[in-house]
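Postdoc handover notes: sequence design on the structure in folder B. Input tokens:
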């Protein structure tokens, strides 16, 4: 990268940060988290607001794999890290189940290794009984035309309302999306065993060419993180 490119990249980053801060402020005002929009200080959300962010898969477990070899684990982590920044700047305490490309509690692709990994994620969330957990994933389906974000939720009232708010917020990105929130059954281990209200966001389909290309861009991942943050702010604000 040349000096001019570096300056352009730095300017781009600053603009992105400004856009995100403005967007967050607007969201907070819209959903009543920022009580006094004139005080010029970052809003301090209630200390009770803890968000556990779980970036799905990691390490040897790549999760869903696209035709071009892209794995969901990396996309999940990227979106999760942006979401972390958005929530923290708003005063929400964030706990991450992972911040690196690792499986939790050992590695391997055996059923028991994957189970240990999921149990560890639940154990981390379980340490914060007042928290909301959001698990970030990407989808895959044999039918290539399948696309769009879909939110699953655990058997908690708060989870259902958070799922609904995130699903609704996604319509700002794609007003044609007809996917509806779904209550998780026992096939989604994380949600069926979660003790805290939890949602799982399937951010898009790696099996849909155009959606895959978008998911691979930083810009689209920022939009997805904003949509998820928007829904969560709304859910928190309505408590
Ligand atoms: Zn997944």
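Designed sequence:
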């Amino acid at each position: 990268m040349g000096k001019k490119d570096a300056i352009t990249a730095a300017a781009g980053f600053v603009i992105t940060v400004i856009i995100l801060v403005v967007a967050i402020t607007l969201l907070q005002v819209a959903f009543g988290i920022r009580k006094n929009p004139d005080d010029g200080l970052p809003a301090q959300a209630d200390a009770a607001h803890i968000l556990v962010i779980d970036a799905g898969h990691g390490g040897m477990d790549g999760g869903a794999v696209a035709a071009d070899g892209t794995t969901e684990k990396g996309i999940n982590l990227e979106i999760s890290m942006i979401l972390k920044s958005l929530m923290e700047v708003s005063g929400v305490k964030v706990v991450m189940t992972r911040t690196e490309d690792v499986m939790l509690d050992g590695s391997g692709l055996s059923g028991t290794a994957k189970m240990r990994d999921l149990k560890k994620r639940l154990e981390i969330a379980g340490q914060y009984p007042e928290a909301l957990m959001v698990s970030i994933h990407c989808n895959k389906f044999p039918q290539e035309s399948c696309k769009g974000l879909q939110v699953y939720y655990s058997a908690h009232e708060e989870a259902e309302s958070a799922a609904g708010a995130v699903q609704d917020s996604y319509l700002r990105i794609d007003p044609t999306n007809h996917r509806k929130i779904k209550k998780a059954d026992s096939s989604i281990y994380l949600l069926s065993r979660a003790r805290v209200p939890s949602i799982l966001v399937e951010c898009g389909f790696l099996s849909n060419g155009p959606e895959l290309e978008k998911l691979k861009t930083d810009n689209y991942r920022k939009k997805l993180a904003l949509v998820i943050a928007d829904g969560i702010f709304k859910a928190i604000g309505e408590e």
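Context for whoever picks this up: The radius of gyration is 18 Å. Don't rerun without checking with the PI first.
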